């Protein structure tokens, strides 16, 4: 997303003409790495199609669709020209904003700028600005629109006196984030102004964040200073935002129409009278916008000019945007809509001109407003039957369900189903006393439930969460607001959910991790109360350890998971590399994921037996089966115990074949503990996780210290480091990357670092410096082409001439099928391969590894993936090179024998899996494993491979 910052601004530039200014801009965009050489031609071509002069001394040069390919990253650069540059037609530009954008991302920037464009003497101020900060302030500090919508209106609110009415109005402004919490106090110091007809006015500028107007009417008759109080306006005043409204209000009072406001029974009437919303009976027409880049400057200008031909009001709004309609005659207002191709515009015109204006504007928009447009596809009205989901049925007793093995171990216990349900409830209540009683009853029940949960929870962190929930239930602010809505006739459920939703949104809007958690808590508690109100209370968790059944488990659910009570996890969605699996492994809870939506229909309390190693679930199993499984669990526990005792010994098969077992890590801290868990080295250091842990890009010295810490901790054991693997779905907050339709197939891994060689060079330097004479292995992620490897190698070799290292190997990750198929060629040049089975599987099977329903099928034991591993190992060994596997597959107990049999030399797994993997190897016979691998290569599916391993 394009945002403005001071770093993007160059002050005091000069250019003799527009062409020279464009040259300067292009140079700046190129040197900052946003675009490639040649973008200048795009800027020039765009100006030739039509000037990018926006108004108020601002121009926004940008490229054409043909030069979009030259954009490396979305961004803007601003040049101030205090002497002005003639942009054609005598239009003088003091600020040129050069935009590098691949699609319509610059619409967002235009939205920002339109606020500034409304300023009367902005051009002059831009010319005179003496610092980048001042200039930025001019662009951002422009007047804000007055907030006035249905949320700001309270009709018939309970108030005992005038002060309480003032307090109610102030609350509406606080809730809309127009004012800080001190505003109500400020208003008490201000003298209210009677406007006549029982209407009153109060305003202040203190504690105001954005301008807004609240209007409240009292439920019961009130008087103040001997005069009646029928309605009160409270203005949070900032600049001149309220001017137009004040003028309308004066006209209204002069016309003697004040009573229309006091008698209004709904907020829509108030808004219409005040002009905040258009009268409902004005004619309107709708049309989809077909312009490829939305309603940007050129088509918006056309539209505004056409609208100006009509002598009357015409407004435009975006359907479903929640934004109010804007004047179609104002270019800046039209741009502020940020309308994109495919969005529906509604044109609303004053009745006197509607018959002429609406058809004319519709025709102009349909014709493309001066641009060539490709018509939008017709909207499909009917839902196509064949797309309907097949009906699901709950699995019967005795059913065996195959899911994905996510965390090893055997668990049994009653099912505890946690599914987010949809609730139906009436919006209007029966009567105030009935709805009040319903709410109180529901609140008391939930409070009681939480009390019981708190008592039962041994973990302090979990108890604290529940205590917070109880506090929320008792929050007078929340209950007050709900009560206000009940008085207006809403049902308890509708009022409760509206208040919870508004409060949660408020927290979420602050973009603070802690407050976002609070918002999640609010929503959680909100749903519990709603369930009570709808008579569908949550089923309490069973007393004994249970199998938790959910759609997916997100990391935030971890806090609610009590490993003492959750014996196993079963999810309907997700795969072995999904969050649920990672969370479960981290907690050591057996888990099966991606078992299909039918498991959500299992009746609560049904006994379940879950085998996290085989990915299998038995529903209400027979007694003998349960007994067998429990005996196996005991054996497994003993095995684990024994494995742990031998964790520091090497992994050697019965017939003497050794395989190295290394650790995957993502941070430098705790490396000693990793070694203590049996790691013979680090097989994958995910350096992007180190980058992500920093607020800004770690410089060379910071990186060197991080890498040194790992090497020190390894004490002579090898370190395999992967260079930065960001981009695509893993962006770094401080490293803007152009948005992509298909990030997994986009600029990620080596593709990205080769585009930003200075980042890669500084990482490589830090690595070489940290290594000295210790064993360092560097590998590059996502290599798919020989040329990528060669460029990366050349860079290391150049740096090696400056920085001496004595034990360095260079390799690549095999994550893309093209790299595996090219292994016979690559093996001649690399020192090693490390197979990233997570990505290799997703690219081979064409299944997004994070896909909510498909990722369960992304099984690395698919014979197609095994074939690619086989090709890689054969190629490497033919040239005397070694091969590791560092994807999740390396820790999959059913995969170890096969990877060993295929000839893999090293397995790199999460530290807590090392002992178990080593123990597994010790039980194998290399020759048998080779035979098994050869058979696996001949199978037709991952399921068949797993079955083969089972029966070995
Ligand atoms: C992989 O793709 O297997 C891998 C190890 O890399 P990551 O999971 O970090 O993409
Ligand atoms: Mg990967």
UniProtKB/TrEMBL annotation:
Stretches assigned to the PTS EIIA type-2 domain: 2-142
PROSITE patterns reported in the protein's UniProt record: PEP_ENZYMES_2, PEP_ENZYMES_PHOS_SITE, PTS_EIIA_TYPE_2, PTS_EIIA_TYPE_2_HIS, PTS_HPR_DOM
Location(s), subcellular: Cytoplasm
Domain HPr: 282-372
Gene3D superfamilies recorded: HPr-like, Mannitol-specific EII, Chain A, Phosphoenolpyruvate-binding domains, Phosphohistidine domain, PtsI, HPr-binding domain
Keywords: Cytoplasm, Kinase, Magnesium, Metal-binding, Phosphoprotein, Phosphotransferase system, Sugar transport, Transferase, Transport
The reaction(s) this protein catalyses: L-histidyl-[protein] + phosphoenolpyruvate = N(pros)-phospho-L-histidyl-[protein] + pyruvate
Pfam families assigned: PEP-utilisers_N, PEP-utilizers, PEP-utilizers_C, PTS-HPr, PTS_EIIA_2
EC number of this enzyme: 2.7.3.9
SUPFAM superfamilies the UniProt entry points to: Enzyme I of the PEP:sugar phosphotransferase system HPr-binding (sub)domain, HPr-like, Phoshotransferase/anion transport protein, Phosphoenolpyruvate/pyruvate domain, Phosphohistidine domain
Gene Ontology molecular-function annotations: kinase activity; metal ion binding; phosphoenolpyruvate-protein phosphotransferase activity
InterPro entries tied to this protein: HPr-like, HPr-like_sf, PEP-util_enz_mobile_dom, PEP-utilizing_PTS_enzyme, PEP_util_AS, PEP_util_C, PEP_util_CS, Phosphohistidine_dom_sf
Enzyme class: transferase
Required cofactor names: Mg(2+)
Recorded GO CC terms: cytoplasm
GO biological process, one term: phosphoenolpyruvate-dependent sugar phosphotransferase system
Family membership: Belongs to the PEP-utilizing enzyme family.
PANTHER family membership: PHOSPHOENOLPYRUVATE-PROTEIN PHOSPHOTRANSFERASE (PTHR46244)
Record protein name field: phosphoenolpyruvate--protein phosphotransferase
UniProt organism field: Pseudomonas donghuensis
UniProt lineage: Bacteria, Pseudomonadati, Pseudomonadota, Gammaproteobacteria, Pseudomonadales
């Amino acid at each position: 997303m394009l945002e403005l910052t001071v770093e993007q601004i160059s002050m005091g530039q000069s250019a003799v003409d527009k062409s020279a200014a464009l040259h300067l801009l292009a140079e700046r965009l190129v040197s900052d790495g946003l675009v490639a050489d040649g973008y200048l031609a795009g800027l020039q071509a765009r100006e030739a199609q039509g000037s990018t002069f926006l108004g108020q001394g601002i121009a926004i040069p940008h490229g054409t669709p043909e030069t979009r390919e030259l954009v490396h990253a979305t961004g803007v650069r601003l040049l101030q020209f205090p002497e002005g540059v003639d942009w054609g037609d005598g239009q003088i530009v003091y600020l040129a904003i050069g935009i590098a954008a691949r699609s319509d991302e610059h619409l967002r920037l235009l939205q920002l700028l339109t606020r500034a464009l409304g300023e009367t003497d902005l051009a002059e101020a831009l010319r005179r600005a003496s610092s980048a900060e001042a200039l930025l302030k001019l662009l951002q500090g422009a007047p804000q629109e007055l907030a006035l919508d249905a949320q700001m209106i309270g009709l018939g609110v309970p108030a005992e006196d005038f002060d309480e009415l003032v307090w109610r109005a102030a609350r509406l402004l606080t809730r809309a984030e127009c004012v800080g919490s001190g505003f109500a106090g400020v208003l008490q110091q201000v003298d209210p102004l009677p406007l006549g007809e029982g209407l009153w006015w109060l305003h202040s500028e203190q504690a105001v964040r954005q301008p807004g107007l609240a209007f409240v009417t009292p439920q019961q008759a009130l008087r103040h200073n001997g005069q009646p109080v029928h309605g009160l306006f409270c203005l949070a005043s900032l600049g001149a935002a309220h001017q137009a409204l004040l003028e309308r209000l004066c006209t209204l009072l002069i016309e003697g129409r004040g009573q229309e406001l006091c008698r209004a029974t709904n907020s829509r009437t108030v808004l219409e009278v005040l002009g905040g919303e258009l009268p409902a009976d004005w004619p309107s027409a709708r049309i989809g916008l077909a312009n490829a880049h939305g309603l940007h400057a050129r088509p918006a200008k056309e539209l505004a000019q056409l609208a100006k031909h009509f002598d009357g009001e015409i407004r435009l709004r975006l359907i479903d945007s929640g934004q109010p309609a804007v004047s179609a005659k104002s270019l800046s207002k039209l741009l502020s809509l940020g309308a994109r191709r495919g969005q529906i515009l509604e044109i609303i015109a004053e009745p006197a001109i509607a018959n002429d204006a609406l058809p004319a504007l519709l025709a102009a928009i349909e014709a493309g407003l001066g641009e060539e447009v490709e018509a939008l596809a017709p909207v499909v009205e009917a839902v196509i039957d064949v797309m309907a989901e097949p009906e699901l049925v709950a699995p019967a007793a005795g059913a065996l369900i195959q899911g994905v093995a996510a965390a090893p171990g055997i668990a049994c216990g009653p099912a505890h189903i946690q599914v987010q349900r949809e609730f139906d409830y009436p919006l209007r209540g029966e009567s105030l006393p009935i709805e009040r009683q319903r709410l109180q009853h529901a609140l008391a029940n939930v409070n009681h439930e939480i009390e019981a949960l708190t008592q039962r929870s041994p973990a302090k962190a979990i108890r604290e969460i529940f205590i917070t929930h109880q506090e929320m239930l008792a929050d007078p602010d929340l209950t007050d607001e709900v009560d206000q809505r009940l008085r207006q006739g809403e049902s308890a459920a509708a009022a409760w959910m509206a208040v919870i939703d508004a409060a949660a949104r408020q927290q979420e809007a602050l973009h603070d991790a802690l407050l976002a958690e609070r918002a999640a808590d609010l929503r959680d508690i909100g749903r519990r109360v709603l369930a009570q109100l709808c008579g569908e209370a949550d089923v309490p968790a069973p007393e004994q350890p249970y199998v938790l059944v959910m759609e997916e488990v997100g990391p935030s659910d971890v806090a609610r998971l009590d490993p003492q009570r959750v014996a196993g996890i079963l999810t309907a969605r997700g795969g072995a590399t999904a969050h649920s699996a990672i969370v479960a492994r981290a907690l050591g809870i057996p888990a099966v994921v991606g078992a299909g939506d039918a498991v959500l229909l299992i009746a609560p309390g049904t006994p379940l037996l879950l085998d996290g190693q085989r990915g299998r679930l038995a529903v209400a199993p027979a007694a003998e089966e349960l007994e067998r499984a429990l005996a196996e669990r005991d054996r497994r526990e003993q095995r684990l115990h024994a494995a742990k005792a031998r964790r520091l010994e090497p992994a050697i098969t019965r017939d003497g074949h050794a395989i190295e077992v290394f650790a995957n890590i993502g941070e430098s801290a705790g490396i000693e503990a990793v070694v203590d868990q049996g790691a013979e080295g680090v097989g994958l250091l995910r350096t992007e996780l180190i980058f992500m842990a920093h607020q800004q890009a770690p410089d060379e010295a910071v990186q060197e210290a991080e890498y040194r810490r790992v090497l020190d901790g390894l004490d002579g054991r090898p370190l395999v480091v992967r260079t930065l693997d960001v981009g695509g779905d893993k962006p770094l907050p401080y490293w803007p990357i152009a948005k992509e339709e298909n990030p997994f197939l986009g600029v990620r891994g080596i593709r990205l670092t080769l585009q930003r060689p200075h980042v890669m060079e500084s990482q490589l330097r830090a690595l070489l410096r940290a290594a000295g004479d210790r064993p360092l292995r560097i590998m590059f992620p996502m290599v798919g082409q020989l040329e990528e490897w060669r460029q990366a190698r050349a860079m290391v070799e150049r740096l090696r001439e400056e920085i001496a290292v004595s034990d360095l190997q260079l390799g690549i990750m095999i994550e893309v099928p093209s790299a595996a198929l090219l292994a016979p060629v690559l093996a001649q040049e690399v020192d090693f391969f490390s197979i990233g089975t997570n990505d290799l599987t997703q690219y081979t099977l064409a299944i997004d590894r994070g896909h909510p329903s498909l990722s369960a099928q992304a099984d690395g034991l698919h014979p197609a993936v095994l074939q690619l591993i086989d090709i890689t190992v054969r190629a490497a060994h033919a040239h005397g090179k070694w091969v590791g596997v560092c994807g999740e597959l390396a820790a999959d107990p059913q995969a170890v024998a096969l990877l060993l049999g295929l000839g893999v030399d090293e397995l790199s797994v999460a530290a807590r899996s090392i002992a178990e993997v080593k123990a597994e190897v010790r039980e194998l016979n290399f020759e048998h494993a080779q035979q098994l691998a050869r058979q696996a290569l001949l199978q037709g599916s991952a399921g068949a491979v797993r079955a083969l391993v089972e029966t070995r």
